[in-house]
Amino acid sequence: QNPIVxxxxxxxxxxxxxxxxxxxxxxxxxxxxxxxYIFKASYDKANRSSYNSFRGPGLKExxxxxxxxxxxxxxxxxxxxxxxxxxxxxxxxxxxxQIPAFLCRQTDLVYEAGRTGKAVNVKKxxxxxxxxMKNVIAKLEEAGNRNILLTERGxxxxxxxxxxxxxSLPIMRSLGYPVVFxxxxxxxxxxxxxxxxxxxxxxxxxxxxxAVAAGVDMLFMEVHDNPPEGKSDAANxxxxxxxxxxxxxxxxxxxxxxxxx
Amino acid sequence: QNPIVxxxxxxxxxxxxxxxxxxxxxxxxxxxxxxxYIFKASYDKANRSSYNSFRGPGLKExxxxxxxxxxxxxxxxxxxxxxxxxxxxxxxxxxxxQIPAFLCRQTDLVYEAGRTGKAVNVKKxxxxxxxxMKNVIAKLEEAGNRNILLTERGxxxxxxxxxxxxxSLPIMRSLGYPVVFxxxxxxxxxxxxxxxxxxxxxxxxxxxxxAVAAGVDMLFMEVHDNPPEGKSDAANxxxxxxxxxxxxxxxxxxxxxxxxx
Amino acid sequence: QNPIVxxxxxxxxxxxxxxxxxxxxxxxxxxxxxxxYIFKASYDKANRSSYNSFRGPGLKExxxxxxxxxxxxxxxxxxxxxxxxxxxxxxxxxxxxQIPAFLCRQTDLVYEAGRTGKAVNVKKxxxxxxxxMKNVIAKLEEAGNRNILLTERGxxxxxxxxxxxxxSLPIMRSLGYPVVFxxxxxxxxxxxxxxxxxxxxxxxxxxxxxAVAAGVDMLFMEVHDNPPEGKSDAANxxxxxxxxxxxxxxxxxxxxxxxxx
Amino acid sequence: QNPIVxxxxxxxxxxxxxxxxxxxxxxxxxxxxxxxYIFKASYDKANRSSYNSFRGPGLKExxxxxxxxxxxxxxxxxxxxxxxxxxxxxxxxxxxxQIPAFLCRQTDLVYEAGRTGKAVNVKKxxxxxxxxMKNVIAKLEEAGNRNILLTERGxxxxxxxxxxxxxSLPIMRSLGYPVVFxxxxxxxxxxxxxxxxxxxxxxxxxxxxxAVAAGVDMLFMEVHDNPPEGKSDAANxxxxxxxxxxxxxxxxxxxxxxxxx
Lengths: 261, 261, 261, 261
What we know:
Four copies of one chain form a homotetramer.
Chain A: E1 5-9, H1 16-33, E2 37-40, H2 59-73, E3 77-80, H3 87-93, E4 96-99, H4 107-115, E5 119-123, H5 133-142, E6 148-152, E7 155-156, E8 162-163, H6 168-173, E9 179-182, E10 188-189, E11 198-199, H7 204-214, E12 218-224, E13 238-239, H8 243-257
Parallel strand pairs in A: 1-2, 1-12, 2-3, 3-4, 4-5, 5-6, 6-9, 9-12, 12-13
Antiparallel strand pairs in A: 7-8, 10-11
């Protein structure tokens, strides 16, 4: 087994069959490369730029689809939670509860997610200094949870743009928990398309390779069989047929730098 | 009546008597200056940096205290809502439902707040371009609500710092709704004190005067009789005994520029 | 005399007659408003985005034109210097030597400008924290010069954008020297037009009023009778026929806040 | 020969013997690793924060020392030029003329450097978008020079901080010229020590590895046998005895990603 874990899937659950098919394609690739794989898709995009954007099937149906995918693929699943009221149901299905970046400072959401005992992946807010994730960690530890992941997904850089500060990876790893690099949200251009976010898919491979070289424990990527058809993050998801070559780079780079971890 | 409205009060409801007394002091000042006054205090600080920070009396007791203050002072009241489940109870007491900056993209919270028919004050996220507030407005209008306020409270500027881009005031006013300048959160230094935010109270008067000159409809200020004793935002709240002189400047400047509104 | 001083003129010396005529128009306006006036135009735009952009008449001819304008209008003149070799000639004509923002850290240029005994106006670099201007001041004081002006002209804010942090005005005034607000370069969009900078002229009045309310000693504005025809900064220069109304606002606001200086 | 070129040396020429000795140490390391090596040291630090900081031996003596080092080590040498008047003398000794970041928009300096026919390395200004380097390139091409290097050394990120946006590497490479990553200036904290810049040496290896993985042609590093004794950039220079291990990582990573160049 390669040590870098892959969290991947389409941004949002669209058609259940297509969603499962994407997960199956990723699983096959990860299997060939001996990379541990965790399936990700959102049951609800709760913070779309626009009211009329597609949000997904919702909590109940979405968790049911995720449970089906988990059983079919025999892989762990992760999804975003947005509200304390979703946690109990979500924790019955999900292996990892994910705190969206905008919500990383919401004490109750973080604490109650922690209380489930499930792994919790907190995305660092676009407005937060890397070192300030120590306070988020303290909320989870207060809940008795040390099964924590910290995700870099870009920092606010002027308007409608993000920048990845790769100093954040060693800073967050120094806090004692595994660090995830979210390669596809890091290239979002927030609000860049007027009524939705745009993105720069072309930079995903560069930032992924840079992140692995700087040292990460996991990669997070939104992947789709045909991203321009995707109902969310169409401009920044990775084509599934580009994934294997990129992961081969990841393994080669990680082999070169793993001794520093 | 002067046309600029003042939203003010302590950051969080502390002791009910002291909270009321602060409101009463502000009301007297606003009354002398003929400035319409809306009381503000939070019943719950839901996104403190640190788990162990003071959060306030909570929804039920807090709304009861706010109802009491509203009746005693005979002024409208505004407070933050953080979760859809709080909206029904909050709308029974509050005149304005306020969406915190970190939550300005949460579709359900914004939409359901809008559905109450109450005025909704949305704080622009530190991560959001001013023009992108048009999408937030669209969510409220979709809920049939045109009773909207838009608040500037600073934009992310590197780490642990905010900057107020005063272009945001005319940009947001061009969207067709009144614009509020939050003078005390705009001088926060997020995470600047390690386990809490710090602030630069000394710049509140400068930014307040600049905002009025650039053109705003309302001012939002957290005010305390002894800010260093405050249980939240101690470093950036304004001393109540500095308020009157500052508001006199506000009136004089607004008189000079009102014709441009 | 009103206490706020105006530095104004076209960005670059174009046709000498037209340049003089613009200065004459501004002088008349300033005279009517009893505002002290200093003429500004560049003899050389030494850092245009593009090689083929218009640069002006150059040092020798430019200084000659500036000397003529100074005599005709009977006003002090200021212009940018870019190189130590220009200082001697420039100091014979100019009343104020201006250090461009990109060059504010060039020790020899600053020091030698200081050694002339002329007033020196240093534009704060887009990359510099306001407090760091203390080190620039120290270089001038080392040269025996205390005739110093400090100019705010916006700070780098992501790519192709600037933001004015109005905290910089009180911070720089606390360093003991008069502070100038450059209202027209502050709305530049650097590189925003591909091979040249673009700009947002529409925000000049808002930022000017905000700056005066926050407290400044002088205003700097590039003004043209027909800015779109201007050979530099066409997108951000102010129309000369908009100047008088704006300066009336400036006086009214300054009257309201002058006691804080 | 490995394809990645190393530009390295102490920030500023201090004692000539020590400076040569540092170069010799680096040359031995580069030789063992079959990495082409170019010596770098500044003859004049022309933009120190503080007037009284050490600046180096100056143009004449400095070029003489660089000529000696070039002859002793039999390697090309590069150094900063700050003024058109330095170019002729500098071009007689230097193999690469380097344009400092603050000066990357000075048309005459760039153009006249280009006219020498020497290679010109332009450091991207901290205030410049990566794509805007196309305009700098156009100035050099106008001078008939296509022997161009483009260097990333961090972008302004709030106050007293820089961030490396690794999207800049593929963006600048797409402009058709080799790209250099300046690993040690990228971790400067400008003005971070009050009267001088501070730095974060501890992040140099992380950013170096990330840059190579993202794809660069050359690495630029300031290296010293005892950085805290260094007379400039003491906080961010690399210890020479850490260099070899880091370059071994560089080779391993570059081997893994070279096919993408």
